[in-house]
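Hi there,

I know you've been waiting on this one. I reran it after we fixed the sequence typo, so this is the corrected version. Both the input and the resulting structure follow.
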Amino acid sequence: MAVVKVSCPVNPSEDPDKVRAAIESIFPDAELELDEKGFSGTASLDRFSKAIRSQRILDAVRGVLLANVRGSSTRMSLNKQVATVGKVSFADRRPVLGAIDVVIEDDDISALIDRVAPMTVDGEEVRA
């Protein structure tokens, strides 16, 4: 079973409610806790998977997830400003306001990536 860990800093200039809303626009079922550094918690990939399909960015997401596989996990950093409107976009290497960091762990990480962000041919999902 996949474990999805989500974390995101809250800067002094930011409203914690707006940062929470940005995270929940991509991960609406996230169970988040706020501490002095920001939010952290767990979520599922259901809404994320639907969002990347509707945005037609499966290949980009798949590439990022595969490039970041380490053992039984992978990671990605999402732009939290873009997330406020429910869109998935990858963060720059060092975003000024920080990013929504996502770590996904699964015993069969390759199969999970195939389910969440399957291969495409001419923009259509390839089903095995």
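Quick highlight: Residues 3-118 form a domain with the 50s Ribosomal Protein L5; Chain: A, fold (CATH 3.30.1440.10).

Best,
R. S.
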